[in-house]
Design a protein that fits this description.
By secondary structure, the protein is α+β, with helices and mostly antiparallel strands. It has one domain (19-195): Protein Transport Mog1p, Chain A, CATH 3.40.1000. It is built from six helices and seven strands. Strands 1-2-3-7-6-5-4 form a seven-stranded antiparallel sheet, with helices on both faces. The longest helix is centred in the N-terminal third of the chain and has 19 residues, at 28-46.
């Protein structure tokens, strides 16, 4: 069973903005523009999604990472289309979404914790297990990125994890670094969460 919205048959990605061009410039204005475009798309979708967590069922904020809207926004930001609709799993309050691209796999996961202190402790455990990580500014309450691009963001009682280790060091047609890919994906997802 697929949670969230299904991908449209013609998975053309939106071209209202060039996420790659914005990320390459790395300016504050570009990041704000990417986030604004993402929020507009995700807010319309999240309006009907709700954010109720039911035991043994992922919250809608978790399933957003694998929904067609997120897929389209990630494809636009990276300027690369996945080979197929993303595949997801749900186990032990961990929602994992795998995006299969022609040259590798991106894994986006959300760990749902019972409350903010538990999420803060889980985030701290990820940070201590990640050598060389550095804090980054984000819409979440706290975030870090590792030299490998592995990125973790805590927002309320959820922890977003972005694993780019399955992608080549120079990803896609513009040869994006792991850190650039993870940053783009984090901006898309956090924009969706802010709009929910």
């Amino acid at each position: 069973m697929r949670y969230g919205l299904s991908a449209p048959p013609n998975r053309a990605r939106p071209r209202a903005f060039s996420g790659l061009r914005l990320l390459k410039s790395a300016s504050v204005t570009a990041i704000v523009a990417l986030m604004a475009a993402t929020i507009v798309v995700c807010a319309l979708w999240a309006h009907h999604a709700g954010a109720v967590t039911v035991h043994n069922v992922p919250a809608s904020t978790s399933t957003m990472v694998c929904a067609s809207e997120a897929e389209q926004q990630i494809a636009a930001a990276l300027d690369s289309d996945p080979d197929e609709s993303p595949q997801h799993t749900w186990s032990d309050h961990l929602y994992t979404c795998r995006y299969h691209f022609p040259d590798g796999t991106l894994v986006v996961s959300v760990k749902e914790l019972p409350d903010v202190p538990a999420a803060t402790a889980f985030f701290a455990s990820r940070a201590s297990a990640t050598p060389g990580h550095r804090p980054v500014s984000t819409q979440g309450q706290e975030a870090f990125v590792a030299p490998t691009g592995y990125t973790v963001v805590r927002k309320d009682s959820s922890v977003l994890m972005i694993d780019v280790s399955g992608l080549p060091d120079a990803f896609g047609p513009h040869r994006l670094s792991h850190v650039t890919v993870a940053t783009a994906v984090a901006i898309v997802i956090m924009g969706c969460w802010s709009g929910s």
